[in-house]
Amino acid sequence: MADKKPIEDGIELTEAQRAARRRRSLALALAIGGLAFLFYLITVFKMGSAIVTNRTL
What we know:
Number of domains: 1
Oligomer: single chain
């Protein structure tokens, strides 16, 4: 009984499916990163003049 291999659950993906999944993941990561960078730039440009004129030490 100790010689039995555990049964693997799940689906085995083909190489093409793995490559497609990787491309989708990369595209999603780039889209999210680009959106975060865009929000950062918008925030800096909207606050830019206020930060320069309202400096308090």
